[in-house]
Design brief:
Elements lengths: L6 E3 L13 E2 L9 E2 H14 L3 E3 L3 E5 L8 E5 L2 E5 L30 H4 L7 E5 L3 H10 L5 E5 L9 H9 L3 E4 L2 E2 L18 E2 L1
Helix pairs in contact: 3-4
The structure holds flavin-adenine dinucleotide (FAD).
The site of flavin-adenine dinucleotide has 23 residues, from helix 3.
Length: about 200
């Protein structure tokens, strides 16, 4: 125990990206894998056991130019906090495509969260855009419901970790479309068609 006083401003969405996933297979100590939210809850409990105070609030503002020797100041949820050191680990968020229509169609055929929305796409042909871990995970989750899942990626090779690539490639419902970028306008048909092709070959 180092005896430092540690405050974690964990954000409103505490736990980060692993709260959105299912089984994590590459974390040491879990031979059968562990559910992402369970892993994050265990990490939180462990940090709290060692005295970390965790607040589920978002960082809003800060002063990182204190007078010599003075502490840094950050504000969150209407309160001000001081620290001699600040570690910023604010992670990642949804990266939109910038295609006309995408934001208007969220919840009507467009989704950024497969575990949340997969049941709405039962027996459909679904497109997942991307080539990283998120894309592989989302594609794999969707195969539990979809007829087929096509991963559309703008480069000629995936960026995902090898273990995630292997899992996706071994799944017979998943196919890949490389060197392909989504550029078309997303249009809504009635009823919403998750199997509407959204990608154009470059
Ligand atoms: C679907 C999916 C499946 C994955 N599966 C695996 C896997 O099996 N194995 C693996 O090793 N990796 C996996 N990854 C990758 C892994 O989740 C990330 O590498 C990891 O979560 C990164 O951790 P992080 O703490 O850097 O960022 P994040 O997990 O993004 O966490 C950042 C945190 O910062 C908070 N935050 C942001 N802004 C603020 C602010 N202003 N104030 C306060 N808090 C803020 C956010 O709310 C969030 O809680 C997966 C990722 C995804 C999306």
């Amino acid at each position: 125990m180092i005896n430092l006083k540690t405050l974690v401003l964990a954000g409103v969405k505490w736990g980060g990206q692993l709260m959105l996933t299912t089984v994590v297979e590459n974390y040491p100590g879990f031979p059968e894998g562990i559910q992402g939210p369970d892993l994050m809850a265990a990490m939180r409990k462990q940090a709290e056991r060692f005295g970390a105070e965790i607040k589920e609030v978002d960082f809003k503002d800060g002063d990182f130019h204190p007078p010599a020797g003075g502490p840094f100041t950050v504000s969150a949820d209407g309160q001000s906090f001081e620290g001699k050191s600040i570690i910023i680990a604010s992670g990642a968020d949804t990266k939109w495509l910038g295609v006309p229509g995408e934001k208007e169609k969220v919840g009507r055929g467009i989704s950024t969260c497969a575990p949340c929305d997969a049941p709405f796409f039962r027996d459909k042909n679904i497109i997942v855009v991307g080539g990283g871990d998120s894309a592989m995970e989302e594609a794999l989750v969707l195969t539990g419901y979809a007829k087929t899942v096509t991963v559309v990626h703008r480069r000629d090779m995936l960026r995902a970790s090898q273990i995630m690539q292997d899992k996706a490639r071994q799944n017979k419902k998943i196919q890949f479309m490389f060197n392909t970028e989504v550029t078309v306008q997303i249009q809504l048909h009635s009823p919403p068609k998750a199997d509407q092709p959204l990608a154009e070959k470059e």
